[in-house]
Write a structure and sequence with these properties.
This protein is α/β, with parallel strands linked by helices and about 250 residues long. The chain has nine helices and nine strands. Among the domains are: about 60 residues, no CATH class; about 110 residues, Rossmann fold. Helix 7 packs across helix 9.
């Protein structure tokens, strides 16, 4: 009887020790799995326009938002409507500029290693997976100085293309840019996109951006109103923005 109780007590101790060890090991494994899953989700995070609006409305400092944009995968909508949505949501211009610049660098570079039998060394062939191939992403100033032609593309009824062309061509600061306005946008070095801000019946706001037709690099962006003369206002704002880039 004494032996039975002693054996039962020893068995209980063994089971208790086993359960404690098993519990610790199980918790350790679970924590490791949870950490790996969280890390995977963090790395797979992709920022969108809605995320930028959420960060802005949370009161996060603009420099921190810009840094987050640089460090994250992105899938931004930088169409005219997308930019208008960001602006109307209170997103700072510097953040919007970072969004546009980040969107031009979405090409994925795949490095394929191939062996060369002649000297048994390795050569690398770089393949760029993107819709439009480009040699490199030059800075806005370099793009502007090397460009010779520009085309106008607008999603709004006003201003007429002819009126805007007229206002641009008669400006001396535009003439210094040495940019020839062409009719067909496919062959132009640069494009000017213009759109009307929705629901701006009172303020009559219009937005624009100028970008490289080959790489998509955004050179300048801004907005103006139709008060006075829309074509004249746009010509002034576009020229001043580009003049600032060239200096």
């Amino acid at each position: 009887m004494v032996f039975y109780h002693f054996y039962h007590h020893i068995s209980y101790i063994k089971i208790s020790i086993f359960m404690k060890i098993f519990s610790k090991q199980t918790l350790s494994v679970l924590f490791t799995i949870i950490f790996c899953v969280c890390a995977a989700f963090a790395q797979a995070e992709t920022l969108s326009n809605k995320d930028i609006i959420l960060l802005t409305k949370s009161g996060l400092e603009k420099t921190l938002i810009v840094q987050k944009i640089k460090d994250s995968n992105t899938a931004f909508d930088i169409s005219v409507n997308g930019l208008v949505e960001l602006k109307n949501s209170g997103v700072d211009d510097e953040v919007i500029k970072a969004v546009m610049e980040r969107s031009t660098k979405t090409a994925e570079k795949i490095v394929v290693e191939t062996s060369v039998s002649a000297n048994d060394s390795e050569s690398r062939t770089e393949i760029y997976a993107e819709s439009k191939p480009t040699a490199n992403f030059a800075n806005p100033k370099e793009v502007l100085l090397s460009s010779k032609t520009v085309a106008i593309n607008k999603s709004s009824l006003n201003p007429s293309r002819q009126a805007l062309e007229k206002e641009l061509l008669k400006r001396k600061d535009w003439q210094k840019l040495n940019l020839n306005i062409v009719r067909y946008k496919e062959g132009a070095d640069l494009r000017i996109e213009i759109g009307r801000v929705p629901l701006s019946w009172i303020t009559h706001r219009y937005v624009f951006r100028v970008y490289d037709n080959k790489s998509g690099t955004v050179l300048a962006a801004g907005e103006t109103t139709s008060w006075g003369s829309l074509a004249k206002n746009l010509a002034r704002e576009i020229t001043q923005k580009l003049d600032a880039v060239s200096n």
